[in-house]
Amino acid sequence: MTTVSTLPWAAAPAAGNAIGLYAKWTPALDAKIEAALQRLREVSIAHGDGLVQSSSLGAEDMVITDLIARTQLPIAISTLDTGKLHPETLALLPRIEERYGRTVEVFKPRFDAVVEFVAREGEDAMYKSIELRKACCGIRKMEPLGRMLAGRSAWITGLRREQSGARSDVAFDEDDGNGRRKISPIADWTWAEVWAYVQKYDVPYNPLHDQFMPSIGCAPCTRAIAVGEDFRAGRWWWEESSKECGLHAKD
């Protein structure tokens, strides 16, 4: 199996890397790191085994995993393998285990549901309509997320207010609409601060970030962005939509 995406921009040499392009330590970052750690400590005490980090394996979530691991917080780490992720994304799983000694629990979609959907709608269903794309997300993301969160009282995300207009009001701690607490400990961090932390603590990250892909999801639904494009413009770029799959959409 190839370990490099077949995407043309992934095969091309990067103009520098994400650290060189984005990292900038700000005067506020030391305080933001300590505040994020305090949020993680408090939620760990409050929820114990009922708490999980739901990691997309993106840069933000890798920062949170590093915060958890460096301070030895007993917080479980989980992710969703949709069956359509880039190989570069999946390659982070053994890197996390090697670096931090933490095993990431992986939740996959139900095989029969995927087979039935693809047989009925085709492999390229996501491009046919927003409804079909959301149905694909439902099978590959929402249903496995439900199993990940079953029996949990709180979950941790890497959401940041800067990511999009739809996320501009992300709270550090809020109800997720299903009776659980949803914790976003770095909600107030900038993209530059995320990468400054990655640089300082040598955090493993997805090399596709070096290829101008700040928001990385399933391979068919993610592309590189151009200068001046919105942070999430590379997600479902063929749609006029809020660029959400349902995991973090608000009614």
UniProtKB/TrEMBL annotation:
Subcellular location per the Swiss-Prot or TrEMBL entry: Cytoplasm
List the catalytic residues: C245 (nucleophile)
Q: Which UniProt keywords apply?
A: Cytoplasm, Iron, Iron-sulfur, Metal-binding, Oxidoreductase
> Which gene underlies this protein?
cysH
Q: Which SUPFAM superfamilies match?
A: Adenine nucleotide alpha hydrolases-like
Q: Write down the required cofactor(s).
A: [4Fe-4S] cluster
| Record EC number | 1.8.4.10
Q: Note the superkingdom of the native organism.
A: Bacteria
Where does this protein come from, organism-wise? Pelomonas caseinilytica
Major localization class:
cytoplasm
Task: Specify which residues bind [4Fe-4S] cluster according to the UniProt entry for this protein.
Answer: C136, C137, C218, C221
Q: Which residues form a coiled coil?
A: none
Which free-text remark accompanies the cofactor? Binds 1 [4Fe-4S] cluster per subunit.
Name the chain's protein: Adenosine 5'-phosphosulfate reductase
Which reaction is recorded as catalysed by this protein? Answer: [thioredoxin]-disulfide + sulfite + AMP + 2 H(+) = adenosine 5'-phosphosulfate + [thioredoxin]-dithiol
Recorded GO molecular functions are: phosphoadenylyl-sulfate reductase (thioredoxin) activity
Q: Name one Pfam family in it.
A: PAPS_reduct
Job description of the protein: Catalyzes the formation of sulfite from adenosine 5'-phosphosulfate (APS) using thioredoxin as an electron donor.
